[in-house]
Design a protein that fits this description.
The protein is built from five helices and twelve strands. It is α+β, with helices and mostly antiparallel strands. A hairpin with a 2-residue loop joins strand 6 and strand 7.
């Protein structure tokens, strides 16, 4: 059956530049070999919703109309990948803003939650480019559509893993209501706070569920452990 917008699928892929250098992959061994491994990454295949923008636009569009088991490779231009470089993301600052007043080409800079790289230093001025290092480049994605998810439990677990990196989470279902027990560790996680509403909308829009309940459970045992940890830190 051909995939349609709104289908939940598990897909494996590897993104690379046209010359072959890999910058992204769902294969853990490939990631380690190519030096792009992240301990926070989720490997073994991503769960995405077709047409919801969970991947770059050019790859997302590639899935619609394909069959489960399909393998392919697609070349994607920058306008449907990581965008074109924007002039307003390139700025010039005094080198006095740098530690010890020293700026070198290639330095990575963190500013206002953005990451940039020093591209030029002339006299006492440094040029910093906050564009994505992938901006303006053609990229190639090799992919395989592994499966289509059918149950609401699979869909919720898969999408939660995409948004939070958590593969194991407690769920309960009552008719068309899903109750999700949120681990305390991510309650105040900025990434989760931003993604929670989007996650709920995508589940409700693309399943037969009518309600999502997020439950933050605090037990006596957890409070006792927290108290011990707080005392240890205080000492």
């Amino acid at each position: 059956m051909a995939l349609q917008k709104g289908d939940f699928i598990r897909v494996s892929y590897t993104g690379k530049f046209e010359e072959g250098r890999i910058f992204d992959t769902t294969d853990e061994e490939v990631a380690k070999t190519e030096g792009v491994y992240s301990p926070q990454g989720v490997y073994g295949g991503d769960v995405v919703v077709v047409g919801c923008g969970h991947t770059i636009a050019g790859l997302d569009a590639e899935f619609e109309g394909k069959e489960v088991g399909c393998e392919g490779s697609v070349v994607i231009g920058p306008e449907n990948a990581f965008g074109l470089p924007q002039e307003d993301l390139i700025t010039s600052v005094s080198t006095s803003k740098f530690k010890d007043g020293r700026a070198n080409v290639g330095m990575i800079i963190e500013q206002d939650g953005r990451q940039g790289v020093v591209t030029k230093v002339v006299g006492r001025r440094a040029t910093i480019d906050f564009n994505s290092p992938l901006a303006g480049k053609n990229v190639v994605y090799d992919y395989k559509i592994e499966a289509i998810l059918s149950t609401n439990e699979e869909k919720i677990r898969g999408l939660l893993a995409l948004y939070t990196g958590l593969k194991e989470i407690e769920l309960e279902f009552d008719a068309s209501v899903a109750k999700i027990y949120i681990p305390r560790g991510i309650t105040f996680n900025q990434r989760w706070l931003i993604a929670k509403g989007k996650f709920a909308k995508e589940i409700l829009d693309n399943t037969d569920l009518t309600e999502i309940q997020f439950v933050e459970r605090v037990t006596k045992e957890q409070n006792e452990v927290d108290a011990i940890m707080e005392k240890a830190i205080g000492e």
